């Protein structure tokens, strides 16, 4: 196996995706940071990987089949699972920071909190079924299940906006995704319109 092919393999790719998590965990375990310090970076990384995974389909529609879009498509599942992994790490640090279940339950009805919990609950079935066996078992239902990513993304955005004072960071991440999705919708609509049969003119 050549060096380039080795570096491009999925195991190496997974390791690269896990590097930020390893660094954050190390920082916490050696006492350089506390659990509360880990909440923002883990949540932000989860959102970023989710956005990357969601941006791949619009990019393929916009730019067509290219070498780089094919590379992204083959790794879309990895990006999605990585987003879930960082969301679970975010949850873990949140639980450690809160220390007691009573404290967690006391604020669960706050909009900035329940939006995060609901987004995570939507992520769970998508992550569990993100494998070939589930695709074969669920058939057409698999794609419908994976579309839960859209409400999950909206809830993630709401969670981010409500937890932090400023909106700049959240919008800087989600506006490009929204623009890509809008452009994708326009292109698909125009293609369908151009291929639809035109009514015959009768004088």
UniProtKB/TrEMBL annotation:
Subcellular location: Membrane
Membrane topology category: Multi-pass membrane protein
Domain Ferric oxidoreductase positions: 43-156
GO CC annotations on file: plasma membrane
UniProt keyword terms in alphabetical order: Iron, Membrane, Transmembrane, Transmembrane helix, Transport
Coiled coil: none
Keyword Transport: yes
Superkingdom: Bacteria
Spans traversing the lipid bilayer: 12-29, 49-67, 79-96, 108-128, 148-164, 170-189
Molecular function as annotated in GO: FMN binding; heme binding; oxidoreductase activity, acting on diphenols and related substances as donors
The keyword Iron is assigned to this record: yes
Record's protein name: Iron reductase
Organism: Parasphingorhabdus halotolerans
């Amino acid at each position: 196996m050549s060096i380039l092919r080795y570096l491009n393999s999925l195991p190496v790719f997974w390791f690269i995706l896990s590097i930020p998590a390893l660094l954050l965990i190390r920082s916490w375990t050696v006492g350089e940071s506390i659990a509360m310090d880990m909440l923002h970076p883990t949540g932000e990384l989860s959102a970023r990987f989710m956005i990357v995974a969601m941006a791949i389909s619009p990019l393929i529609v916009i730019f067509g089949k290219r070498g780089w879009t094919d590379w992204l498509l083959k790794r879309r599942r990895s990006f999605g699972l990585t987003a879930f992994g960082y969301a679970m790490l975010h949850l873990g640090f949140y639980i450690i920071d809160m220390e007691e279940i009573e404290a967690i339950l006391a604020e669960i009805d706050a909009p900035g909190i329940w939006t995060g919990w609901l987004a995570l609950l939507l992520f769970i079935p998508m992550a569990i079924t993100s494998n070939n066996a589930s695709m074969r078992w669920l058939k057409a239902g698999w794609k419908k299940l994976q579309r839960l990513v859209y409400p999950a993304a909206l809830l993630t955005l709401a969670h981010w906006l409500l937890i932090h004072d400023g909106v700049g960071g959240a919008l800087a991440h989600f506006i490009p995704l929204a623009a890509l999705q809008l452009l994708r919708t326009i292109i698909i609509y125009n293609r369908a319109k151009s291929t639809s049969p035109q009514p015959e003119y009768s004088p």
